Amino acid sequence: MLIGLTGTPGTGKTSVSRLLEKKRHWKVIHLNDLIKEEHLYTEIDEKRDAAVADMELIRERLAEIINGKDNKVIILESHLAHYIADIIIILRACPPELKMRLKTRGYSEEKIRENIEAEALDVILVEAFEWCKKVFEIDTTGKSIEETGQDIEKIVDHILSGNEEELSEYEPGSIDWIDLVP
Ligand SMILES: Nc1ncnc2c1ncn2[C@@H]1O[C@H](COP(=O)(O)OP(=O)(O)OP(=O)(O)O)[C@@H](O)[C@H]1O
Questions:
Q1: Is 106 annotated as a binding residue?
Q2: How far apart, in whole angstroms, are the C-alpha atoms of residue 169 and residue 166?
Q3: N or C, fewer C-beta in 10 Å, the chain?
Q4: For ATP, which residues are the binding ones (predicted)?
Q5: Distance in Å, CA 122 to ligand 1 centroid
Q6: Residue of 16, 35, 91, 101 to test ligand 1 pocket, by largest number of atoms within 8 Å of CB
Q7: Model confidence at 21, in pLDDT bands (50, 70, 90)?
């Protein structure tokens, strides 16, 4: 089963998926690393210092990787995961906390503002609703990486056992950070 782990940069996709890779031995595809390593991009946007992902190439490459694996759970970790996986978990972080995390990471003021604005406006959530069959949301604000990992484990384990009715706490809709748009 392919599960996408998406979210605005800094919400914790990489940190939490690394933890789960070790703890649960789930296969995790760190898509942004794969894009860089295998040049799965059309061009480099110099102004934004970012690679422009080639979604067609990415889908082809992922199909090859996934078809060769018999893992029960494959986590696709990337802010692009909701364009690819049908089942999606979105990590959220309230704008003031996200700002701190991105500051610690040395992001420019412009990049911080762009990201916290996107988070406050639910940009990824809206995109996920458009593209995915099933969407879960975890608010990581005030949580540790371990606690966020436990939330993901709960979602995945309940999907695997067919007990999704017990996942109502992760249904999107309770987050409202519109007043926190910078
Ligand atoms: N509850 C939490 N869950 C995840 N990360 C957290 C949490 N609390 C604090 N953090 C911190 O937030 C930062 C998240 O960075 P990380 O690279 O994992 O995010 P990301 O979503 O993968 O970003 P990117 O899309 O740029 O790769 C890390 O420094 C991590 O230690």
A1: no
A2: 8
A3: C
A4: 10, 12-15, 105, 143
A5: 18
A6: 101
A7: very high
